[in-house]
Design goal:
By secondary structure, the protein is α/β, with parallel strands linked by helices. It has 2 domains: 17-206, Sandwich (Jelly Rolls), CATH 2.60.120.560; 228-467, TIM Barrel (Alpha-Beta Barrel), CATH 3.20.20. It contains 10 helices and 22 strands. A hairpin with a 2-residue loop joins strand 3 (39-42) and strand 4. The longest helix is centred in the C-terminal third of the chain and has 16 residues, at 354-369. The structure holds zinc ion (ZN). Zinc ion is lined by residues 245, 247, 303, 377, 442.
Length: 471
């Protein structure tokens, strides 16, 4: 028994030795494709700068053929730089490598010409896209890539970026058939002359061939409606699918949001309500929320509940937010001089004349849309007592007034996963008029929210990348 244990321990240790793949002074053990001049070594770092080239490891470690491993690379990208690290890839004389996957490095590169690049550092390129970069430019960070079996886990510094399981069947038709996990070498990318990225301390730890892919434990991705087909299709077409309406309440935390984002492929924006009687009332509370969530690759916003929010809070704090989400669900009742009333608490008011109320409600909508907010949550919301009158109260004309105000003020329209607002007719008008969309779960706790309604709306209305809103 003891001998067996000793043997197992030794075997594990043999595999667990991190090996340096870069000697810190030369490109020995590496081979560059096409534009070889794009690579140099300066101050102990490999520098990628120049026309497209890929630097493949072809040194002695494991004959440059890695299956299960942990790869750690320290990298630093200058502003507007694009680069990446390929895994399970193979030498290729020219072009973007067809074999394996690319783990993207891109903190702020926005693309060239018409192409707006949204795949940020830590993404598995075009397969699992992160829309918010976890890293600032000109800052050293560690990219940690663990591959075991069909599972790839990417960390950027200590934050989980992607936890991906490759499906058995073929991937999206947009990909070459070699976009698969198998085994192979690694390669660094020089993307274009405008990009400068440095790499240092490139260590690889081989994991045993029988390493259990289920270790470490993977949080469940179930319940969000993020089926493989839905996510793959959007990711391959570079269409962001972002749930900006994830409240940190009822046990929901930034870490749980991060795990959900990494396993489902749905990007998330976390937020808290701001206003009198809401979780954030003061600037000190707003600053605390921003500081606590600063290092997370999640968008961060607030949902504003008072109509004077933009004049009563420190602008430098508001500017640190990625977005402001507003809604129309609190308005003066029973008339414009009445107290602000929560329409979602129907016991506190009555609507005696729906048509007269609707005229006031439409004005209230336009007032909210004139605020410097970014997203209108639950557009065309109606309180329960008048919801059966939706098609009567929300005439096409009224819908178009709201949509035009949103377009004029650069406010995106949320498709809410749970409430059923806005309804299909509104989405169709908004799409045809050129509005932008987001999705929102409006969770009450840390349980998954089924986003199927939003996926279906994006699909049936053929929402394009240009019609989605990104900060
Ligand atoms: Zn909300």
């Amino acid at each position: 028994m003891r001998a067996l244990l000793l043997f197992l321990t030794t075997a594990a240790l043999l595999h667990a030795n991190p090996v340096e793949l870069f000697d810190g002074k030369s490109l020995a053990g590496w081979k560059a494709s096409e534009n070889t001049g794009s690579w140099s070594v300066k101050h102990g770092a490999i520098v990628a700068n120049g026309k497209r080239s890929h630097l493949f490891y072809n040194g002695p470690v494991a004959h440059a053929d890695f299956t299960n491993f942990i790869l750690e690379i320290e990298a630093c990208a200058a502003a507007r730089s694009n680069s990446g690290v390929f895994i399970h890839t193979a030498w290729q004389k020219t072009g973007w490598p067809d074999h394996g996957y690319e783990i993207q490095i891109n903190n702020s590169y926005n693309g060239h010409g018409q192409h707006r690049e949204l795949k940020r550092t830590g993404s598995i390129y075009a397969v699992r896209n992160l829309t918010k970069s976890p890293i600032a430019d000109d800052q050293w960070f560690t990219l940690r890539i663990q591959v075991a079996g069909k599972r790839v886990i990417v960390h950027v510094d200590d934050k989980l970026a992607v936890d991906y399981i490759e499906p058995d069947g073929p991937l999206h038709p947009a990909f070459p058939p070699t976009r698969r996990l198998s085994s192979g070498t690694i390669a660094l990318q020089a993307h274009d002359p405008g990009s400068t990225v440095r790499f240092r301390r490139i260590t690889l730890t081989q994991l045993p061939a029988n390493h259990d892919p289920a270790i470490p434990l993977r949080p469940s991705a179930d319940g969000c409606g993020a089926t493989r087909d839905r996510i793959d299709s959007l990711a391959a077409r570079n269409i962001p699918f972002i749930d900006y309406h994830v409240h940190l309440r009822g046990g929901m935390t930034a870490d749980k949001a991060l795990a959900r984002q990494a396993t489902t492929g749905i990007n998330l924006g976390i937020l808290k309500n701001l206003g009198q009687g809401w979780p954030i009332e003061t600037d000190a509370q707003l600053a605390a929320f921003l500081d606590e969530t600063e290092s997370y690759p999640l968008f961060r916003g607030i949902q504003v509940n008072d109509r004077d929010w933009h004049t009563t809070h420190d602008k430098t704090l508001l500017d640190r937010l990625d977005y402001i989400l507003a809604d129309t669900m609190i308005m003066p009742m029973p008339d414009d001089n009445g107290p602000m009333t929560k329409l979602f608490e129907p016991a506190t008011y009555t609507i005696d004349d729906p048509e007269a109320w609707m005229k006031r409600y439409l004005k209230h909508n336009l007032r909210v849309l004139a605020e410097p907010c970014n997203i209108l949550a639950n557009p065309t919301y109606l309180p329960p007592s008048v919801e059966p009158l939706y098609d009567t109260l929300w005439t096409d004309e009224r819908m178009k007034l709201v949509i035009q105000a949103a377009i004029d003020n650069h406010v995106a329209l949320e498709i809410n996963a749970r409430s059923g607002f806005p309804r299909d007719r509104f989405i169709r008008h908004a799409r045809n008029m050129g509005a932008k969309f987001t999705t929102g779960s409006n969770n009450s706790d840390d349980q998954p929210v089924d986003m199927s309604r939003c996926f279906k709306a994006y699909q049936s209305h053929r929402i394009t990348k240009a019609q989605t809103w990104v900060p």
